[in-house]
Design brief:
The protein is mostly beta strands and 197 residues long. Helices cover 10% and strands 46% of the residues.
């Protein structure tokens, strides 16, 4: 009987340790998680895996759809960043992922119009497979008429990723932007009106 009690105690201790180390389905404070089918994702804090400090955030996807994604994100007003060039950095680690991407979007004065003034989602440089901690970055300008800044991390398909040490900081204008929003190709003055060229 004593042996059985000891075995049960050890099992309960192991389960408690796992639950403390990885606090599943509790979205980290200040963050929002959204997905078409929330039941296919686990989100939480991991006290056993981190780049530095004592914990990281993690997302596990059990969704094998290539058309849906789970997204961990934040949004802030743009007022403190107007006219600045911002650099978003984060350390990310992955395990057997189809695709993980960090993203940032700068919204214009009328967000309901859906027009973004700057956008990058690492579309041409996604994180795939299994990777160790690595720092990733996005650099965007925040025009004077910006209203909000959105940023976060999403996973497409199955796998798991961790994120730690997210930072947003102003950088010098010599740092190149990673903006994926095409600049207008419309000329600023009429061209070849006499058709001589």
């Amino acid at each position: 009987m004593k042996k059985l009690v000891v075995i049960l105690f050890v099992i309960l201790a192991v389960i408690a340790t796992i639950m403390i180390a990885k606090n599943d389905n509790k979205v980290p404070k200040g963050w929002v998680f959204n997905a078409p089918d929330r039941a296919k994702y686990e989100v939480g804090m991991d006290n056993s895996t981190y780049e530095s400090g004592k914990s990281s955030a993690f997302v596990i996807s059990h969704n094998n759809s290539e058309k849906e994604f789970g997204n961990l994100m934040q949004a802030v007003k743009a007022e403190n960043y107007l006219g600045k060039r911002l650099q978003l950095t984060a350390y990310i680690k992955s395990k057997n992922v189809n695709r993980v991407q960090m993203w940032m979007r700068i919204d214009g004065p009328n967000p309901k119009e859906g027009k973004s003034l700057g956008f990058d989602n690492m579309g041409s440089r996604p994180i795939t497979g299994t990777t160790d901690w690595k720092q990733y970055l996005i650099v965007l300008d925040v025009p004077e008429n910006s209203s909000a800044i959105y940023y976060g991390f999403f996973i497409i398909g199955t796998g798991e990723f961790w994120v730690d040490n997210v930072k947003i900081a102003e950088v010098d204008k010599t740092v190149p932007v990673t903006n994926m929003t095409p600049e207008s190709t419309m000329p600023s003055a009429p061209v070849n009106l006499d058709f001589e060229e």
